[in-house]
């Protein structure tokens, strides 16, 4: 099993798929990295040699991935919260940040719906 940047790549997958398990590496960057490292895109991840994984690590040094990217994103969100801007306030309240509606949807962000005593919908009052 290949280990790159502290992440175990899955076994028996094509390298173009396996490399996307790294945080910050999607299909496009994954293909670019593999081409720069001179590795076949369809090579099975379990057949990856130590030299090939070292070349992938060297190529990935040019990109912001894994821990550095997570830290950068976290600091960006913290900066928005400290500024008190609209997006920061939405992050602080765990509500959707990018203008989505919240009256009916946003259950993933808001959590499980909790019934409020005495509050009924308009339809049931008619």
Report the β-strand fraction as a percent range: under 5%
- Estimate the mean pLDDT confidence: 90
Query: Radius of gyration over alpha carbons?
Result: 22 Å
Q: Tell how many strands the DSSP assignment holds.
A: 2
Q: What is the spatial order of strands in the main beta sheet?
A: 1-2
Largest sheet: 2 strands, antiparallel
- The CA-CA distance between the termini, in Å, is 63 Å
Spatial shape = elongated
Helix content: 40-55%
Q: Name the CATH architecture of the largest domain.
A: Orthogonal Bundle
What structural class do helix, strand and pairing data support?
Answer: mainly alpha
Tally of helical segments: 7
In the residues, how many domains can be counted? 2
CATH topology of the largest domain: Helicase, Ruva Protein, domain 3
Contiguous low-pLDDT stretches (5 residues minimum) are: none
CATH class wording of the largest domain: Mainly Alpha
Q: How do the helices and strands follow one another from N- to C-terminus? A: EEHHHHHHH
Structure explained in plain terms:
The protein has 126 residues and is mostly helical. It is 47% helix and 3% strand. The chain has seven helices and two strands. The protein has helices at residues 15-18, 27-37, 50-60, 66-83, 86-92, 107-110, 122-125; strands spanning 3-4, 7-8. The model has no long low-confidence stretch (mean pLDDT 90).
